[in-house]
Amino acid sequence: SIPLSFFGGLGGASKCGVLIKGSNYLEALANTQIIVFDKTGTLTKGSFAVSKIHAKDISNEQLLEIAAYAESYSTHPISQSIKHAYNKEINNSRIQNVQEIAGHGVSAVIDDKTVLAGNAKLMNREHIQYEPCTEAGTVIYVAIDNKFVGYILIEDEIKDDAPFAIKELKANGIKQTVMLTGDNDAVGKKVAKKLGLDKVYTQLLPADKVAHVEELLQSLHQTNPKGKLAFVGDGINDAPVLARADVGIAMGGLGSDAAIEAADVVLMTDEPSKIATAKKIARKTLAIAY
Ligand code: ADP
Ligand code: MG
């Protein structure tokens, strides 16, 4: 049977805006020693500002327009940011055959031309010769009919409460903090350094994130069979990794329906510090129960 104090714990957490889908997850949270974060929208705000537009053979305005059109159907934070920078109405009749390529970017047919917008991985995959951007930031390379036409550099900010969240988690039984991201190495390392994370892995596809979590789980269970691992994410691509973790935590506000569905814990406000709050409540509840 479930100790009575568990109901208090679940209720206390929900009052703080943390929805825990069962007392078993409260217990797992109390025993969590490794916490793995997604980057975009989880530790960073996910609302990128365009910091540079570098066009080749077309104008900067044309580059931004073609990128906004290619991104028009995506719900990814990158796409929202590009559409926001473009800030004009989009004529949907010009767009056909839109495809989102997880961990890579998007492809669409615009005015009968094939447009690709995404990272270096996408350009390499399609064998497109491009000018690499050397500045730090998230880069969206754009190609029209397999010809590179420039890149857009965008920058995200660390969430205000993220440094506090990391400190609080470390003070409350977390032994290792890890970040997994599909973004480039420069951005990933910069964020990890600023937050003092123990480990960072970059340029990952959704399947790579699952593989890293499995590896971390294995090494944790070798040293501590009772230790648990939590993963925190927001995106639709995070569902497999949310399901694989002992405790899957989703950002409820920014999160996709698939992520919220797959999660064991949902944060109603997208503040990572809420995880530390939940961890504290979980530890206290367990201490009272046993
Ligand atoms: P994260 O791991 O930071 O949450 P994702 O796995 O969602 O990132 O995406 C990884 C990378 O794939 C992004 O940094 C970006 O380079 C590229 N990407 C994903 N979706 C898009 C998109 N809609 N437009 C352009 N690039 C994208
Ligand atoms: Mg993400």
TrEMBL record:
<comment type="similarity">
    <text>Belongs to the cation transport ATPase (P-type) (TC 3.A.3) family. Type IB subfamily.</text>
</comment>
<protein>
    <submittedName>
        <fullName>Cadmium, zinc and cobalt-transporting ATPase</fullName>
    </submittedName>
</protein>
